[in-house]
Specification:
84% helix, mainly alpha, 93 residues, single chain, 0% strand
Length: 93
């Protein structure tokens, strides 16, 4: 298989599975969730204690990262299981 064909197949698989959309959603949430949790917890939870609000923002950022990692691993396992079930034919090569 030529390099261009391999890249085209990889791009088609990526576009079909929605990986890019998931990456965009998690990237936006990685920016919005910690900042939002900082200001919300600063005003409503910790009564203007910025140290605890910053810790809350760090925890929120880590929760988003862990959620992205878990969803990526689950999607990878699902794709691997799907590929094992489909026998390779001449058309799929």
């Amino acid at each position: 298989m030529s390099d261009q064909a391999a890249i085209a197949k990889l791009n088609a698989d990526t576009a079909a599975s929605g990986v890019l959309a998931k990456l965009i959603v998690f990237s936006i949430s990685l920016g919005v969730v910690p900042i939002g949790s900082y200001f919300l917890s600063l005003k409503y939870v910790w009564n203007e204690n910025s140290t605890f609000a910053a810790i809350t923002a760090v925890v929120a950022a880590n929760v988003v990262l862990v959620a992205y990692i878990i969803s990526s691993v689950l999607e990878d396992r699902q794709n691997a299981a799907t590929q094992k079930q489909q026998p390779e034919s001449k058309k799929n090569r």
